[in-house]
Design a protein that fits this description.
Blueprint: H1 5-17, H2 22-43, H3 49-60, H4 71-76, H5 80-92, H6 97-116, H7 143-150, H8 158-173, H9 177-181, E1 188-189, E2 194-198, E3 204-208, H10 211-225, H11 254-268, H12 276-289, H13 294-301, H14 306-327
Antiparallel strand pairs: 1-2, 2-3
Helix pairs in contact: 1-2, 2-6, 8-10, 8-12, 12-14, 13-14
Length: about 325
């Protein structure tokens, strides 16, 4: 199906005005496309490029529109009943409550934008509730498991050293994997032992880096500079040269980081469900376990809201209870 001018404009709004990350914008775009596909399949609407462009331009110009004749018209004149039919369709296909909530968030954002710009007749999402979700506590691993994982990569070659630097950086800083692969050489301040990180909404923050992680990154960079395969690549501008590269000298992808992690989990016999985000959870949990205050952890993680960080206090509280039950002589019921 040809992309609709309407959905293209919404994606530009997400990236340009809302400053969503490319990944989040793609997710929202995929959700909106699924809604469009539903309309095509269940309402018999089809997208014609010239007709859709014309319909979109009429709406942007504020011209009145009668009964829906194009897919763009149908989307913009949708009511809550049509939205509910779409959500029922998703539910019948056994989408989880979390996935449904995200798709509702996409449509909520879309119709709010469309109504504000007078492209849509009204906002049908005001009558739609988000399904209640069971709160899942973030999963973390023990310090012993972290040590097992960090020792897995072989430092004999530059890519093995890179992998160790990646794992140590994830655990030492709590970065999102998208933030990690976005780092450039200019972002690493070896003198101050900090990383300059571009987080969600293109907001910059400085994140302290542990000495062991910094030392490993330093060895990786030195090895990289002495490797004939990468000399040309490293001659570029420091603020445009990715810190973590693949074997071809290109920026490492988030998917590649996940594949490397899976490889090392298998080597040391750890749970295959551990993800790069698990190391972020582990970073936060271990900080709180060892006395860090919640506001500091919030700043380190780059959370906008303290409530997002507070979920980790439940994890630390559980561990505190387990420690108490094991250690206190009067903890067990007689």
């Amino acid at each position: 199906m040809t992309a609709l001018p309407l959905t293209d404009a919404f994606n530009r709004y997400l990236t340009d005005e809302r400053q969503f990350s490319p990944y989040t914008a793609r997710c929202y775009g995929a959700d909106l496309k699924q809604f469009v596909d539903f309309l095509v399949e269940h309402l018999g609407k089809a997208a014609d490029a010239s007709a859709e462009q014309s319909a979109y331009e009429r709406r942007v110009a504020g011209q009145s529109v009668g009964s829906p004749t194009t897919l763009t018209d149908t989307i913009c004149q949708a009511d809550s009943e049509l939205i509910r039919r779409f959500l029922e369709h998703l539910d019948q296909n056994q989408y989880s409550a979390a996935t449904l909530a995200r798709k509702i968030a996409t449509l909520r954002s879309f119709y709010k934008w469309a109504a504000r710009n007078k492209i849509a007749v009204s906002n049908p999402m005001v009558a739609i509730r988000t399904p209640r979700q069971n709160k899942r506590l973030p999963k973390s691993i023990t310090i012993e498991q972290v040590e097992q994982l960090l020792s897995a990569p072989d430092e004999k070659d530059v890519l093995g050293l890179r992998d160790r630097a990646i794992l140590q950086t994830l655990y030492s800083t709590g970065l999102r994997v998208s933030e990690l692969v976005g780092l450039t050489f200019a972002d690493a301040d070896f003198e101050q032992r900090v990383l300059r990180v571009k987080g969600k909404g293109n907001k910059d923050r400085l994140v302290p880096l542990g000495q062991r992680a910094m030392d490993t990154i330093g060895r990786y960079v030195t090895r990289l500079r002495n490797d004939a395969r990468y000399i040309t690549i490293l001659k570029g501008e420091a603020d445009k040269t990715p810190l973590f590269i693949n074997k071809h000298g290109k920026r490492l992808s988030s998917r590649s980081v996940r594949r490397k992690l899976d490889k090392y989990l298998g080597q040391v016999g750890l749970d295959a469900s551990i993800s790069p985000h698990t190391l972020r959870h582990t970073f936060a949990t271990h900080l709180l376990d060892n006395g860090a205050d919640l506001r500091s952890v919030q700043a380190l993680l780059g959370h906008q809201s303290l409530s997002t960080t507070q979920v980790y206090t439940h994890v630390s509280g559980q561990r505190l209870r387990e420690t108490y039950d094991k250690a206190h002589p009067r903890a067990e019921a007689s």
